[in-house]
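Protocol check, entry for the methods section draft. Step 1: assemble the input record (protein sequence plus ligand SMILES). Step 2: submit for complex structure prediction. Step 3: store the structure tokens unaltered in the notebook. Ligand used here: nicotinamide-adenine-dinucleotide. Step 1 record:
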Amino acid sequence: MIIGVVGLGAMGLGIAQVFAQAGHPVRATDAADAARASARERMAAALAPRVAKGAMTGAERDATLARLTVVDTVEDIAPAGLVIEAVAERLEVKQAVFRSLEPLLPADAVLATNTSSLSVAAIAEGLARPGQVLGLHFFNPAPVMKLVELVAYAGTTAAALDLARSLAEGAGKVVIACPDRPGFIVNRCARPYYGEALALLEEGRTATEIDAAMVAAGYRLGPFALIDLIGADINLAATESLAAAMGGHPRYHVFRALRDQVARGELGRKSGRGFVFPAEPAPPPADAEAIALRIEAALANEAAWLLSEGGVTAEGIDTAMKLGLNFPRGPFEARARHGADRIRATLAALEAAAPPHLKTRYLPAPEPSP
Ligand SMILES: NC(=O)c1ccc[n+]([C@@H]2O[C@H](COP(=O)([O-])OP(=O)(O)OC[C@H]3O[C@@H](n4cnc5c(N)ncnc54)[C@H](O)[C@@H]3O)[C@@H](O)[C@H]2O)c1
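Step 3, stored output:
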């Protein structure tokens, strides 16, 4: 099946590579001349290390590149059965792309958005066949990250979901269904990893010891090393966006320590200095287990809230968190490891001690039905 890609930035190019490597002819375009002109060269550069380390032969690379056709306009994408847009993260831009594409495509073609933060339902609004719209949320870099969140809104048809799932799975991805809710699974359920660490920091713990506690608990990167890797500005934008989408609930509180960090320009690796970067990791503090329990209790509670809202399974959330963030265990696995009683007691103690602006932050989610 021909796959269409609109937007040849970091994500669109990676998504085009995923499907071209899987053997699909890919027709891709971008509004910017420079992005179109450089696309093939950028894909060749992305494939080069795979060839160098023997993961792909030179002939396979050439065949992959030959499957990419860069076209000048969305009209030229027309025969595609699945089109994925990875254009700018603005509702009106994404709506305009789908509105111009829809009349050109076969009636059963699926329109997928790679949005991270917009509502899929809103993107589908005003189309003649809104049931063909869904989210296929890839992670960066798309050719490397196994996870794809498959986002259905209330109007998405089962046939569209089946097609998108089978094409993404056929391209080697692990596809996890999730509802059209802010942050989907990973971007939402990751918030407490950073948020609880920032709460501890504001209570006087150091970023180094908090990170060391999480590393001792099996996490590849502590919360602050992860913020330093992503960029504190990017992390702040994601946190603010989710806080706004969730009506400013204290579970999504934007901690002052994060705002201050961004205001100081200490964004992490990209600015040369972050919460912990460039310092070396330190040994864990004496109460490392209590720190990890607190952060995992908050992670488990957020995941349980999402679960209670429907459209997703506990296994799906666990898998998404392990693949999307390289976590050693999912939030429900963490809950089972500590025991539900300990998690409940931890949350209750945190709620009792919470300052006024964080009251209700730790209220437990409804218990999952057996
Ligand atoms: N970067 C990430 O980590 C990441 C991860 C998951 C999802 N996303 C989402 O993927 C999308 C793209 O992100 P990105 O990081 O690749 O951005 P990017 O800025 O690297 O690329 C966007 C590309 O879209 C093009 N474009 C903009 N408007 C267009 C239009 N109307 N028609 C055709 N092309 C247009 C731009 O010229 C640019 O080349 C966004 O919705 C983003 O939220 C990003």
